[in-house]
Specification:
It contains 19 helices and 6 strands. The chain is mostly helical and about 400 residues long. The radius of gyration is 23 Å and the shape is globular.
């Protein structure tokens, strides 16, 4: 694993409110990792991640109620998961570099890793066969065809769930089979049916005749597969903790993902990309948005101060595969100008927007790709949560009026 952010002894001690002697004691006890300083092996640096963890523990001991409330806003971890580790260099799926996986693996392989804990060979990885669109009632296809991709997903899942009694079996192997049927249904709604892998079916529908698009779509889906305890994953885990079926889990994830502060950022990034029109207009569009006090979607991520590695990786691959695509040129111009004006790099949302437009896909495809990839992660979170056998039920700090005297 690559090196995480680190701190000097003075910075680490100050952050924890301790002396340097106490810091060294923490290191000797294995509470804080020490690292050799670049260019000077005798000097030491200290893991910022470990310091942040100890500081959160201090705050929880001093004021447990305040610490719990802060944890809900990008704060300290609130539950354990063996799925995804987020580092400054990008996420790791069960110890595997997610960006490296996206360069060489299919969504089916990564589902095997996240669901079962082992990365299968390409030829051995496949989702469980399912009825696909045949799971929907007669006449549903015509109604769904007029909806945007995310609306199709949300409308189809409960219809399919009503026909799938096996989904109530919450044992791990059964959940994996149900998860396969769900992913197959979503893929059919976006890319059509067939026996091919998901990315190949998407390519046939979204970018016919462009065989290079399948690898790009697989990369995007893998990069979206999971991202630790984001709002949609947390919603999915809450629903799973109630022992609801995987269909309900994925429906909850979709509802959260479509929100403007989550996956909806990809739709807003797509709107910004269209607004630019041509590369030479990128700076003007960004400046006008800033003057109007408007947000710049698709740039800056709180977990990646140096830029979202997922977005950068997908944009690099896209530029190499589609160097003459106008959308790629506009995306590159936006990245350059946003770097100058904002000092921020592109997120996965912007990369999805550029990919969808470069392939000539219908509006809303960027969010649907996000959802299809992330459905694999929601199923993985459900498998973990079913095994816990608990109900996620936090308490609220009441701030309303006191009880009235009757």
């Amino acid at each position: 694993m690559r090196r995480t952010a680190d701190m000097s002894a003075e910075e680490a001690a100050a952050a924890l409110g301790i002396s340097r002697a106490t810091l060294y004691a923490y290191v000797s006890r294995g509470l804080i990792r020490s690292l050799p300083a670049p260019g000077n092996p005798r000097a030491k640096r200290y893991s910022a991640e470990d310091v942040a963890r100890l500081r959160a523990q201090q705050e929880q001991r001093r004021a447990p109620e305040r610490a719990v409330a802060a944890a809900l806003d990008w704060g300290a971890p609130v539950l354990e998961s063996g799925l995804t580790l987020i580092t400054p260099e990008g996420p790791y799926y069960r110890g595997h570099d997610a960006i490296a996986l996206a360069e060489r693996c299919t969504l089916e392989q990564v589902a095997g890793l996240l669901w079962a804990g082992a990365l299968p060979a390409r030829e051995e990885a496949a989702f469980a066969p399912g009825p696909g669109l045949a799971a929907l009632p007669d006449g549903a296809g015509a109604l769904l065809a007029g909806l945007a991709p995310m609306q199709r997903f949300q409308a189809a899942l409960p219809l399919a769930a009503a026909q799938d009694a096996a989904a109530y079996d919450l044992r791990p192997a059964a959940v994996m089979r149900t998860g396969g049927r769900i992913v197959q249904l979503l893929a059919a709604l976006l890319g059509g049916e067939g026996e091919q892998p998901v990315a190949a079916r998407l390519q046939a529908r979204l970018a016919p005749g462009r065989s290079e698009a399948a690898a790009l779509l697989d990369m995007a889906l893998v990069l979206c597969a999971d991202h630790e305890l984001n709002v949609s994953a947390f919603a999915a885990r809450c629903v799973a903790s109630a022992a609801a079926t995987p269909y309900a889990v994925v429906s909850a994830g979709l509802a959260a993902l479509e929100g403007a502060r989550h996956g909806g950022q990809a739709a807003r990034a797509a709107a910004l990309l269209r607004e630019v029109g041509e590369p030479g207009q990128a700076r003007r569009v960004l400046e006008e948005r800033l003057r109007r006090g408007e947000a710049i979607p698709g740039f800056g991520h709180r977990l990646y101060p140096d830029g979202d590695p997922r977005g950068a990786a997908l944009l690099r691959r896209l530029a190499a595969a589609c160097p003459d695509a106008p959308a790629v040129a506009r995306g590159q111009a936006l990245v350059e100008e946003a770097g100058r004006l904002l000092g921020e790099g592109p997120t996965i949302d912007m990369a999805l927007a550029v990919l969808a437009e470069a392939l000539g896909s219908p509006p809303g495809t960027e969010v649907a790709l996000f959802a299809l990839g992330r459905s694999v992660g929601w199923i993985a979170h459900a498998i973990e949560e079913y095994a816990q056998g608990r109900l996620i039920r936090p308490r609220a700090s009441y701030t309303g009026p006191p009880p009235a005297a009757e």
